[in-house]
Amino acid sequence: MSVSHVGLRVRELDRQKRFYEALGFTEVKRLRVPDSLAGGLLGLDSPIGFEAVYLQNGDFVLQLLTFSGYPAPDEAERTMVGAGLTHLSIAVDDMAAAQAAVRSAGGAVIADPGGGFACMIRDPEGQLLELVHTDVAPVPRS
Fold this sequence. Notes:
4-stranded mixed beta sheet; alpha/beta; 8 strands
């Protein structure tokens, strides 16, 4: 077995795609799933309007998905203390350049202890991410 992808529900597919492309991801696939198939998989009633973009960075695949028939509700901002998936961590070679890319693509740097080794950011829709310098990433690139 191996990991296929991580799915991230988004409100504005193309805006989020541009943000993750600024962090080194590349679109590798885009698809629309017919309601008849999506309903069976997701347990949702039509209209669903399932659309997804698959972005790749190295061996990692991030799926950005949206359902036009089910607008995403406003939710409390996810923090590191809640149970469940807390964040996505992205290894970067140049912390200053990565932070500049985050800001220019509509994201925000929310915590930076200095030293250029790691920081916490949010994407334009509020998803929490960590940027970690490749020199101190807990699992080195292969």
